[in-house]
Amino acid sequence: MSESTRRYFSKAAIAATALSYSNILGANDRVRVGYIGLGNRGDQVHDAFLEHGDQVTAAVCDLREDYMDFAIKKSRATPKKYRDYKKLLDDKEVDAVAIATPDHWHALMFVDACRAGKDVYVEKPLSLTIWEGRRMVQVAAETKRVTQVGIHRRSVQSLRDAAEFVRSGGIGHVTVAKGYHVQNEWPNGIGNVANGAPPSDAEWDAWLGPAPKMPYNRNRTFYNFRWFYDYSGGQITNFGVHYMDFIRMALGKEAPRAVTAMGGRYVVKDNREIPDTCEVLWDYGETMVVFSQYNANAAPGNVKNAELEIRGTKGTMYLQSGKWEVVPEKTTETLFGYRTPLDRGIEKAWGPSRKPAMEAMTNGTGFAETYPHTRNFLDCVKSRKKCNCDILEGHLSTSATIIGHIALRTKSYLEWDTKTEKFTNNAAANKYLSYQYRAPYKLG
Asked: What's the distance, CA 330 to chain centroid?
């Protein structure tokens, strides 16, 4: 084993567990957290915070009483209950908030929380639009709040090691990076639910918030909102942001130069808006990045059944959750000047002379857990240092996926100006960078 290989393995071995760290903290070090949005991912985020003894669940907020009651039962304290998130933000006994609402609510709640003096953990994808994300970055800077975007793989040590290994040239020059979202939703998908009367008109109106007024449809709520563009960028932003963030970290790149996409609702018979099959391709300058969404076929996207693959000139890295491995490329020493398969004697020249360009490697095990990310946030709330995935990093990774779904919706090749955050070759596509909030909602 080489010294470089040994170094990457040793980092994970010395990492302290979250619980062992929390047990040495005193009561005065506790961070009082308010939770906004407690269904599905919100419940998972709450669980990740509960891993730490220095976290106190001070308040909970949701439109559903049962979600709040479930959160309260598992809390070590007796948190206050709010149905209006602004009243939670007014609570002086809340130091920080965790926002895990549908995507279209993130920007409003984040900005209001910052202006209320709260540090903010906000789930991914950061925003619904580019304009929202940039405004969130600005307000966080103005108010000097500690922020963490819930792209939790940024805090998984084995994946941080993997990104550093790629960034330092471990697999050579990266030419292609690919992420896969593969699952079989054919034929019925989320179903073809008809519009109907909401359980409560007031609750449905509050759930919609700044989004356009629409008839109630059960598929537009709970987890399934991700299949509708008024509330989400679909799987390109939902899963794609995890992959894009790692790729950005591994490449050391901020933003792409251009993006294009193809796909559609080909075979799944439901009332979704997002595609069941698509490919998005970004140009990062000497590296092509691809997101493949195959939701009508569950066969592996690659030979390793990995969610990410990073192809370099010296080797290919495959990543699945918290685990990664590198398969070396092989170099060829030609004999007698033979260089192509058409040259006589190539069998002798090509076969026995192939040598690995690097060592094979494996690192990390198991699932990419969220609790190291919540640990990092709590630590930074106390130290006032920058989190592993602060608001700017979250914005850059989310922005790349947002312009990907814009390319898909407009069936375009779009050139991207990072400084102005606009498309330079398609004025019509720029209208998707923001949207008019439904009255009376405004982003401050």
From this structure: 33
What's the CA dihedral at 365, 367, 368, 370 to 10 degrees?
-130
Beta strands across the sheet bearing 315-320: 361-363, 323-328, 315-320, 308-312, 174-182, 288-294, 277-283, 258-264, 413-417, 422-423
Q: What is the mean pLDDT of residues 245-269?
A: 97
d(CA 74, CA 270): 36
H or E, element range at 57: strand 55-61
352's CB contacts (< 8 A; 6+ apart) are none
Ordered structural domains, the chain, with CATH: 3-154+374-391 (3.40.50.720), 159-368+393-433 (3.30.360.10)
Checking if the pLDDT of 54 tops 50, the result is yes
* Biggest CA pair distance of the chain: 81
Cβ 233 vs Cβ 103: under 8 Å: yes
CB 248 within 8 A of CB 282: no
Q: State the Cα–Cα distance between residues 394 and 110, nearest whole angstrom.
A: 13
Write down the mean pLDDT value for the chain.
91
CA 164 to chain centre: 19
Other Cβ atoms closer than 10 A to 366: 10
> Is the four-CA dihedral 172, 178, 179, 180 of positive or negative sign?
negative
Cα 352 to Cα 345: distance, rounded to the nearest angstrom: 12
Among 179, 126, 129, smallest CA distance to 321 is for 179
- State the Cα–Cα distance between residues 136 and 144, nearest whole angstrom: 12
Amino acid at 207: W
pLDDT > 50? residue 76 = yes
User: Strand runs (DSSP E) across 8-68, as ranges?
Assistant: 31-36, 55-61
**CA atoms 367, 174, 359, 335: torsion sign:** positive
Please report which residue ranges of 210-270 form alpha helices under DSSP H.
235-238, 240-251
Pair type for strands 31-36 and 354-356: unpaired
The residues that bridge with 318 in the sheet, in sequence order, are 309, 325
What does R_g of the chain's alpha carbons equal in angstroms? 23
* Burial environment of residue 430 by CB neighbours within 10 A (0 to 12, 13 to 18, 19 or more): middle
Q: What is the pLDDT of residues 329-362, one digit of tens each?
A: 987 655 444 455 555 554 444 455 468 988 998 9
Which has the closest alpha carbon to 350: 365, 339, 362? 339
Residue with tokens 């918030």: 209
Whether 146 contacts 358, CB under 8 Å:
no
